[in-house]
Amino acid sequence: MASTSDISIGSYIRFNNDICQIVEWQHRTPGNLRAFYQGKMRNLRNGKLNEHRWRSGEPMDVLRVEINDFQYLFREGDHLVCMDPKSYEQFHVPVELFGDALGLMKEEMMVQVGFESGTPILARPPKVVELEVTYTEIAVKGDTSNKVMKAATLETGKEVQVPSFVEIGTVVRIDTETGAYMDRVKK
Asked: Among 5, 9, 46, 114, which residue's Cβ finds the most Cβ atoms within 10 Å?
C-alpha cells in the first residue's frame, strides 16, 4: 500500500472502486491547519473529472498500469481483436473502452491499450485519424458569408460535420477525442 507522498501526476489509483488517473496533484500547507494533498483525477470508466483531498501520509491503492501499442485487426462481437506488433500475440479488448471514437477507427490502425493485472482497463485510438468522405451533399454556390458546415459520411460509416467545400472522395483529418473536423489532407 502506497501513501499520498508516493503519488504523482499520471499515477493510476483505485478510488471508490473505480480506476482513476491523477491529472493534478498538489501538497498544501495552509497557515494554522494540517498539511493535505489535493488531487484532481479522471475516472477511466466514464471520463469524468473528480477532486478530492487526502490527509498527508494517508494510505492509497496505487495500480500498476502497462500501456502498450497494438494494431487493431477486427471486431468480434463485443470485443476488438488487437495484436502486439512485436510478439504477434492477440488480445480481446472490450468495445466500450474506446467509447465514441470507435466509429472513427478502421482496421490495421494502431491503438493504445492499458492493462492492470492482465485485464484491459483503458483504450485510446490515435489522436488524429485520416478518413475518406464517402457521401456528402453538394454545397450551394455563393454561401460563404460565414463558416457553413454540412453533414458528411466517412468510410467507417460515422457522420461528422465538415465545411461546405469538402466533396466526396476528399480525405479529411478528424480529432478522435471530439469527433470534430480538423482539415483536409493534401495529396
From this structure: 114
Task: Locate 16 and state its grid cell.
Answer: 471508490
Predicted pLDDT of residue 30: 86
Q: How many CB atoms lie within 10 A of CB 107?
A: 12
Residue type, 22: I
DSSP of 78-125: TEEEEE-TTT--EEEEEGGGTGGGGGG--TT-EEEEEEETTEEEEEE-
186 CB-near residues (< 8 Å, 6+ apart): none
pTM of the model: 0.75
> Can you tell me the distance from the alpha carbon of 75 to that of 54, in angstroms, rounded to the nearest whole number?
42
* Contacts of residue 127, Cβ cutoff 8 Å, sequence gap at least 6: 175, 176, 177
Grid cell at residue 115: 492493462
pLDDT for position 100: 84
